[in-house]
Write a structure and sequence with these properties.
Blueprint: H1 2-15, E1 30-36, H2 43-59, E2 64-69, H3 81-87, E3 92-95, H4 119-134, E4 142-149, E5 154-157, E6 171-174, H5 177-185, E7 189-192, H6 198-203, E8 209-212, H7 222-225, E9 228-231, E10 243-249, H8 250-254, H9 258-265, H10 270-282, H11 284-292, E11 298-301, H12 304-313, H13 315-327, H14 332-347
Parallel strand pairs: 1-2, 1-3, 6-7, 6-8, 9-11
Antiparallel strand pairs: 3-10, 4-10, 5-8, 5-9
Helix pairs in contact: 2-9, 4-10, 4-14, 5-13
């Protein structure tokens, strides 16, 4: 009965038209439904999505309300969020295109191994890259609010990872096909799983570990479900990162008043990219603090020699991605060169 009640509530919410569209204008006359796969207690919810919704409401003078729905509360799977925004099932989504491999191929250079340096420089680079490569291609069906990344993922596993050989035979979760390919190149079995499926997969032994940043670790219980955390040597200690898309339905945006559009625009794209990038740098520390609070957990820095070995082993990932892009008549090497140049520009 409880499940049926939740399903009915979700269906009813989805059936509601946007308040104020075609009706009389008034205080809080438009409500935008924001849907995502993470719970409200996750760091990105607390430090980015909830404050963003509040800022938009304040900027509109209270006439525009952004109502969050967490953990796929309105139904569907995390892999369907991009469709929900495009088709108007909801108004706004925060989602990973990597959950649906190949869905937004032109964003993938930033997810390839060892391209990313830190959340701030990559997020700033994405703003230039979006304007040049994505507006009329991968993002043409949406009104983009922001593209950004997290600080970068590392190994969080049940067994210690000190060398590339330690990965042999392990089943490890990744969020994108580039991440899966990297794990395979390093000798592990890469498994693509949405975030909510991580805790049961770890508990049941479906996977032996994950590649994630620290900030999200408490939300998916890795501080309790794994015991070993490994980073690389050198100035790029993370294996890579993942692209997050914050997207709005085009019709939902176009129906807003001029003042409401300004409230959205003032809190979108380049206007918030620096703060968002810095936010993902900053929220690593609280996540790491939770991981360190479990006395059983151990931390490793993979040696420079083994780090170099992993980077060399990753070359087939690039070749594989270039081949996939060629099938789509996309110049993969050119996109990768642009991504790297832009990250270098904002890393100085």
């Amino acid at each position: 009965m409880k499940r049926l009640g939740l399903a009915a509530a979700a269906a009813a919410a989805l059936a509601l038209p946007l308040a104020g569209f075609g009706g009389q204008a008034g205080a809080a006359d438009v409500t935008l439904r924001m849907h995502t796969f993470i719970p409200p207690v996750a760091n990105p919810s607390k430090t980015f999505l909830i404050p963003w919704a509040k800022k938009v409401g304040e900027a509109s003078g209270g006439k525009l309300k952004v109502q969050p729905f967490w953990a796929m509360q309105l139904g569907g799977k995390a892999t369907q969020l991009l469709d929900q925004a495009r088709d108007g099932v909801v108004d706004i989504v925060w989602a990973l295109p990597g959950f649906t491999p190949g869905r937004m191929p032109r964003v993938e250079p930033f997810e390839l191994p060892f391209v990313h340096k830190d959340a701030l420089s990559t997020t700033l680079a994405l703003q230039d890259y979006q304007a040049k490569h994505l507006t009329n291609t991968d993002l043409k069906d949406y009104h983009p609010l922001l593209l950004h990344v997290h600080q970068g993922f590392l190994f969080q596993t049940k067994k210690p990872i000190r060398t590339m050989a330690d990965l042999k035979g392990l089943k490890i979760r990744a969020a994108s096909r580039g991440g899966v390919w990297l794990l395979e190149a390093l000798g592990a079995t890469g498994i693509g799983l949405p975030l909510p499926r991580i805790p049961p997969a770890l508990s049941k032994g479906v996977i032996d570990g994950v590649t994630l940043p620290y900030e999200i670790a408490p939300a998916v219980k890795t501080p309790d479900l794994v015991s070993h955390f490994s980073r690389l040597s050198g100035d790029q200690p993370r294996l890579g990162t993942n692209i997050f898309t914050f997207l709005m339905n085009k019709a939902s945006y176009n129906k807003l008043s001029k003042e409401m559009k300004k409230a959205i625009d003032d809190n979108s794209g380049r206007n918030i990219a620096k703060a968002a990038g810095q936010n993902w740098v900053d929220i690593e520390e609280p996540g790491l603090k939770v991981v360190k609070s479990r006395k059983k957990n151990k931390f490793y820095t993979i040696s420079p020699e083994e780090t170099a070995k992993m980077k060399a082993a990753a070359q087939p990932v690039f070749d594989r991605w270039f081949a996939e892009m060629k099938k789509l008549d996309i110049d993969g090497p050119a996109l990768l060169a642009d991504a790297r140049a832009l990250i270098d520009k904002y890393s100085k």
